[in-house]
Amino acid sequence: MVTIRTRHGALSSLLLLCGCLTSEPAPVPPPDLRILVTARTEYASAGEAKIHAANLARVPVRDVEDLGAGRYRMVLVCPDTTTCRTAVQRIADDKFFALGVDAEFPGARQRVPVKPTREASR
Q1: CA 80, 111, 53, 106 torsion: positive or negative?
Q2: pLDDT exceeds cutoff 80 at 60
Q3: Residue 70 backbone class (left: φ over 0; alpha: ψ -120 to 50; beta: rest)
Q4: N or C: which end of the chain has fewer CB within 10 A?
């Protein structure tokens, strides 16, 4: 027989678990960097995209998610912030792999390469 106290405990536990299932990914400790890559072609698996991104970035890649339509979220594992920025730039520079790369720097999301301001482009 289940008592009221046990039911409320089970319900509370269930609510806590559901709270963990949000659409926002967990925060990444610095200097690691989460990026969103829009690939030129859709890969058969996220593993293939991970291998290609790791080869371009020259740093380890983890937690790859296939978001559909050729978009992949992944985390670059770097020893420092400068290495991460350079790795992201290498991925963005390969136009055969990436149409675009969004990097989630602490506090802001940034498109790489950064678009020049209107004044700078004149």
Answers
A1: positive
A2: yes
A3: left
A4: N
Q: Is residue 38 part of a domain?
A: yes
Note whether residue 102 is domain-resident: yes
pTM: 0.68
Both tokens of 84, joined, read 């991460």
Looking at the structure of the chain, the number of domains it has is 1
Residue (of 93, 97, 42) closest to 69 by Cα position: 42
* 11 within domain boundaries: no
Quick check: is 33 in a domain?
yes
What residue spans of the chain are helical by DSSP H?
4-20, 46-57, 81-93
Buried b (16+ CB within 10 A) or exposed e, 83-114: bbbebbebbbeeeebbeebbbbbeeeeeebee
The boundaries of the domain holding residue 40 are: 24-112
Tens-place pLDDT, residues 72-91: 999 999 999 899 889 999 99
Confidence of residue 111 (pLDDT cuts 50, 70, 90): confident
